[in-house]
Amino acid sequence: MTTLRFVLALVGGAIYLIVSLNVVRSLLVPRVDRSSLLRFVIRTLTVPGHIVRHKIQHYETRDRILAFEGPLSLLVLLVVWVLGYLLALGLLLLPSVHSPAKALAQAGSSLVTLGIISSPRGWAEAIDILAGLTGLFVVTLQIAYLPTIYGAYNRRETEVTMLVARAGEPVWGPEILARTQLMSLTEDLADFYRQWERWAADVQESHASYPALMLFRSPSAYSSWAIALLGICDSAALLHSVAPEQTPVEARLALRMGYLCFRRLSAALGHPVSEDPSPTDPIMLERAEFDRGIDRLIAAGLPMERSHDEAWPHFRAWRVNYEEAAYFLANRIDAVPAPWSGRRLSGQRQIPFQRLKNRTPDDPEGISRTPYYPDDPDVTA
User: Fold this and answer.
1) What are the tens digits of pLDDT across the range 130-142?
2) pLDDT tens string 10-40
3) Which residue has the higher pLDDT, 381 or 127?
4) What is the 3-state secondary structure (H, E, C) of the chain?
5) Which of 86-100, 174-188, 345-359 is the least confident region?
6) Distance between CA 377 and CA 27 in Å, rounded?
7) The pTM is what?
């Protein structure tokens, strides 16, 4: 019996080391190679998420429910760590505390630093001290972890919210370019893409290091960080395709950083994609959808250097770099089903972008002049 207790204590020591390694890798090591425990927690939360997606067709209702997925992942991860330490420390106490129930109770008392249960034996006292230090260690790291998480979230959402003024919501790549042309902001494009290049780099680093951030949804149901980045990439790819002479080099840099961000975050969630796709590989976006996007640009007055047929192969060659990863992430987080963002597991139809009315004192209802595009069934006021 004594031999069995020592064997169980060794098992407890192994569990303690495994959990500690997972804590360190999850909170302290800024690498894409996340801990297996963190992957398990995120994948476990996918199960109720899938149920919500398939059972609830109304997008706004799904969005309100899935808003709890990100915060819940942090709480579940903390509970898993605490339970793992509780089991490990309880097993480590078995050589000195012969009752398994008392060993777990003593481990729990020491882990939360209450110390109301203890044993006067040297080994048990050492484990009690280890448990107290472990509890302080985990709580301290978690306290430091949360400001990092929410700081990265706030940086991300600030730019996403600002994009709404420039592109409406949900974000759509052609609409970014169309409104830029209509509002005479073409000279600002270089700074605009430079800003989004830095944004994509920041999101790539923070969200790959802390994957739970990807589950945190935007405050608005019709905004999403993944759809915003997809819109930026599509706008840069479109501009390169239809007007290469007018395209600032910053657009190409933002596009490259954008698809690197998509690939890295997709890999962080266990869905690696090709790092070097062929420019002639097929894409899921249909040609008819692309033509409608080009029509938007023509209606907005963007000077075109290539026709629909000439621009299509160039756009496809750009989009093949990020489409698969972007569609995977949009599906995984159930982002707003915007145009050009693929299908959702729920079967939700695409939600068109919102066209703002041009209200003036002379035209309070904004109906005498349509500043953006002709009537279109997929455009809502």
Assistant:
1) 888 888 888 888 7
2) 888 898 898 888 888 777 776 555 555 666 6
3) 127
4) CHHHHHHHHHHHHHHHHHHHHHHHHHHCCCCCCCCHHHHHHHHHHHHHHHHHHHHCCCHHHHHHHHCCHHHHHHHHHHHHHHHHHHHHHHHHHCCCCCCHHHHHHHHHHHHCCCCCCCCCCHHHHHHHHHHHHHHHHHHHHHHHHHHHHHHHHHHHHHHHHHHHHHHCCCCCHHHHHHHHHHCCCHHHHHHHHHHHHHHHHHHHHHHHHCHHHHHCCCCCCCCCHHHHHHHHHHHHHHHHHHCHHHCCHHHHHHHHHHHHHHHHHHHHCCCCCCCCCCCCCCCCCCHHHHHHHHHHHHHHCCCCCCCHHHHHHHHHHHHCCCHHHHHHHHHHCCCCCCCCCCCCCCCCCCCCCECCCCCCCCCCCCCCCCCCCCCCCCCEC
5) 345-359
6) 48
7) 0.83
Residues in the chain: 381
